[in-house]
Design brief:
Largest sheet: 7 strands, parallel
Helix content: 40-55%
Number of strands: 13
CATH topology of the largest domain: Rossmann fold
Radius of gyration: 33 Å
Structural class: alpha/beta
Distance between the termini: 160 Å
Strand content: 5-15%
Strand order of the largest sheet: 3-2-1-4-5-6-7
Number of domains: 3
CATH class of the largest domain: Alpha Beta
């Protein structure tokens, strides 16, 4: 009996402690890709497990059974994206970097417009405290920092003085670094994510890369941010709430940025302490069994290739892949897609087509030889986590596919140039074990860490909640306030360059004067020689006459 009372007392004490440390968190996420939603679900699940409650404002409407999550749907975002993608004119993978840059920021401004026209915005405004209220309803704001100073970031002005933690399920982007104080871009060593450059860039490639970074910075500062602030200023709902958001007033509240990247598979950045890499927090290290039909298919194959190419790809790509499948009857191919969405695939003994449920579970099978993908960041990350090489089908300007090839665990193929490249890539992977060895090595580098990335992310979030002021000391204020010109000591180098240029100019002037001063002397010597040479014949003639 006493033991029951003791256990009940412990449970009561735990709930009291949890309620004392639990926080109300507001999450602002504009739009997510399906695989990025897995990353956020893992983060939200971890926060709920710690006793926190979440209010999720997003353009993705997903049913949830958790009583700790309240959703506010920004309904117009999905409509805008469908209308924006319908013309197929600005399809990211087929554009030059400059056109992609325009599309990237034009998309952000359209999303901002859809946020302001969504009914969910009114619900968000109603959650904000009035001007007379000092108590804030939230202890922390989680904000998707992938797109930098987006519309939802400006809306955090509704909840003044609430600390902000930036999160991103994507790779590190210049826009993300623009809201992380003390960070800086590195165009000389890190290719822009909209290019297909490798890390070893010559002068002309670095020049091209730097111009793209500069154009992106110009668009972000002087076009996107200004347009978004103007949009918010015209919103009737925000006028009634007496809110006039300004970006410079909000950046200081961003304490930490958590990003889904890791130096073992992503480009290495010189990051300040307030940018924390927590790549792979969605993986839980549990080995789960696949379905019976998939397991039977794998057991009857010499090896398995996993395909994650969706039905939105061109018919030419899908046809090339299916023709390649026919060339390797001894290997099995698992294609994760709706069977009805790939009518050209048909029925093949070595091809399993099914609705994609657990891609990571299939990649964990030991018979998997490679992942055939179009090269999204999350897919490459899953492949490395399971030590599987990658065949990345490129469209010419795929930064992730190029980086996988540069690191040695992937092969980049462009089916537009040569449809046979996919066949050659499969032959190389099945005959050359070096790709698998590098993938396994990258797997170890990605997995071995002091603590699980989810625990790291949760620690930083709770640290900001408990110490919002102190977390503002972990970046360099000098770097944040210094211009690019001074930060890279370009003014100092300009002094050396000017001094050296003056030295060359003065040296040229001095040598020129010396040359001119020596010129008359040579002429005098030549004239003397000429006179003396003329005198000698005359003297000889006189001597001859005397002798006669």
């Amino acid at each position: 009996m006493r033991s029951k009372y003791f256990i009940g007392f412990c449970v009561l004490l735990f709930h009291v402690f949890a309620s004392a440390t639990a926080a109300n968190i507001l999450s602002l996420i504009e739009v997510l890709e399906p695989d990025q939603q897995i990353w956020y679900d893992a983060l939200f699940k971890g926060l709920i497990g710690r006793g926190h409650t979440l209010t999720v404002v997003s353009g993705n409407a997903r049913p949830t059974k958790s009583s700790h999550i309240t959703q506010i749907h920004l309904d117009e975002i999905a409509k805008t994206l469908r209308q924006n993608n319908s013309p197929k004119l600005f399809s990211n993978t087929w554009l030059s970097p400059f056109e992609q840059l325009f599309y990237w920021y034009d998309r952000q401004m359209k999303i901002c417009q859809s946020v302001l026209s969504s009914d969910g915005l009114q619900e968000l405004i109603e959650l904000a405290p009035s001007q007379s209220e000092e108590q804030q309803p939230y202890d922390l704001i989680l904000y998707d920092a992938t797109y930098g100073p987006s519309c939802l970031l400006l809306l955090t002005e509704l909840f003044k003085n609430v600390p902000i933690v930036g999160v991103s399920a994507s790779q590190i982007t210049p826009d993300l670094l623009s809201v992380a104080r003390g960070s800086q871009v590195q165009p000389a060593t890190v290719p822009h994510f909209l290019t297909a450059h490798s890390e070893n860039m010559n002068f002309f490639v670095r020049l091209h890369n730097t111009i793209i970074y500069a154009m992106g910075d110009f668009f972000r500062k002087y076009v996107v941010t200004s347009v978004q602030e103007a949009m918010l200023a015209k919103s009737e709902w925000l006028k009634e709430a007496q809110i006039k958001p300004k970006l410079e007033n909000i950046i200081e509240r961003i304490k930490v940025v958590l990003v889904n990247s890791h130096p073992s598979i992503d480009y290495v950045h010189s990051l300040p302490p307030n940018v924390v890499e927590v790549g792979g927090l969605q993986f839980d290290n549990f080995n789960r069994a696949v379905s019976v039909d998939i397991q039977t298919f794998i057991d009857n194959s010499k090896g398995v290739f996993v395909i994650t190419i969706s039905d939105v790809e061109s018919p030419h790509v899908i046809e090339t892949v299916t023709q390649t499948v026919d060339k390797f009857p001894e290997y099995g191919f698992i294609w994760g897609a709706e069977k009805g969405s790939l009518p050209a695939v048909g029925s093949r003994a070595n091809l399993f087509v099914g609705k994609w449920l657990k891609r990571s579970v299939v990649l964990a099978q030991h018979k998997v030889r490679a992942l055939i993908t179009t090269g999204s960041h999350m897919e490459i990350q899953e492949a490395v986590y399971h030590g599987v090489p990658v065949i990345a089908i490129s469209h010419g300007l795929d930064n992730i596919a190029q980086h996988a090839q540069d690191l040695g665990f992937g092969i980049k193929v462009d089916l537009r140039v040569d449809p046979g490249m996919l066949t050659n890539a499969i032959q190389v992977l099945t005959s050359d074990g070096n790709f698998s060895e590098i993938a396994k090595s990258r797997q170890l580098a990605f997995r071995i860490r002091p603590q699980h990335p989810l625990d790291t992310a949760l620690w930083w979030i709770e640290h900001v909640i408990a110490n919002p002021i102190e977390t503002g000391y972990i970046f360099s204020q000098a770097v944040a306030e210094t211009s690019f010109f001074v930060l890279h000591s370009l003014d100092v180098m300009a002094v050396f360059a000017f001094t050296f240029a003056m030295f060359l100019i003065n040296s040229y002037i001095v040598f020129k004067q010396l040359k001119e001063s020596c010129k008359p002397k040579k002429q005098t010597e030549n004239s003397v020689k000429t006179i003396s040479s003329n005198r000698k014949p005359k003297k000889a003639e006189r001597n001859k006459k005397k002798s006669e």
